[in-house]
Amino acid sequence: MASAPRPGGRDTDRVLVPKRLLDALGDDPASAVRSWLDALPGTAERQLAAWELTLERVATPGGRRGLVALVRLADDTPAALKFPVPGPDADRERAALAHWNGWGAARLLRADPDTGALLLERLHGAVSLRSLPEPKALLEAAGTVRRLWVPPPEGHPFASVTGRTEEEREILRVLGAGDWAAQARPLTDEALELRAALPAEPPEEVLLHGAFRQGKVLAGERAPWLAVGPAPLVGERAYDLARLVLDRCEDLAAGPGPAAAARRRVAKLADSLDVDRDRLRGWSLHRAVETGLRHAAAGDRRRAELLLEFAGWL
């Protein structure tokens, strides 16, 4: 049902849940998430009315973990209205954005704990760091992620790197035992060994983005580049930086001397952010293997082979 016209803005469009989100979450018609999806258009319309927002359009194709709509405030300020999939991850995203308060990340303007709605500073969704040449993108990414690494608030709700990777260890064991993963078992074994050793003596405990990569950094007006879509946790910086090491690994694979180029990338990022090279190399290998095995289990063998090859270069 379309909402009524709002003063100062055109009629809003009907809120349609993007197909990508439906495909990612809508398999089980009896699940709580499917019920949330079914109710989402009405929830969004009520939130628009409650916050006096004018809907421009729903962002498509959008992501797989929530709906984002481009809106305008009553004073015509552009903003983004986000509905993350409800649960602990959504609560942690809200807490991290509130704690950063716009420092290195999109500013949280308003939140509704009942609906999970987040009203965010509008960024240029079509312009991420991936639009830049690789050296420039890495430089800007390093400057952005550095701002996010702050002490967590007291009584924070965030999981730890140790806790998250404990779950990943069990996944690695199961996936690595599959017949199709036989060639990757030496890398899987090394990733498991690194998972056991690296969290034993973490050098620091700071708030991390958790899913930081070039595509998660968008162009803004208030600042040139700001991060979005955190999966926040607390732990050491090398873990957060490891996902950035893996970014655009297809570019390295297509160039000369990919193994040496991968090791140079680790060294350059570690040195620019004062992170221990060996720890960054270890977490990068761990995350490459874990992500590669997940892609293989999902049927994306091409991406899986590339990530596992990247792990071998390290």
TrEMBL record:
Organism of derivation: Streptomyces iranensis
Transmembrane segments: none
Keywords annotated in UniProt: Kinase, Transferase
EC main group: transferase
Name of the protein in its database record: Aminoglycoside/hydroxyurea antibiotic resistancekinase
GO molecular function, one term: aminoglycoside 6-kinase activity
SUPFAM superfamilies found in the cross-reference section: Protein kinase-like (PK-like)
InterPro entries: Kinase-like_dom_sf (IPR011009), NH2Glyco/OHUrea_AB-resist_kin (IPR006748)
Gene Ontology process terms (BP): secondary metabolic process
EC number(s) on file: 2.7.1.72
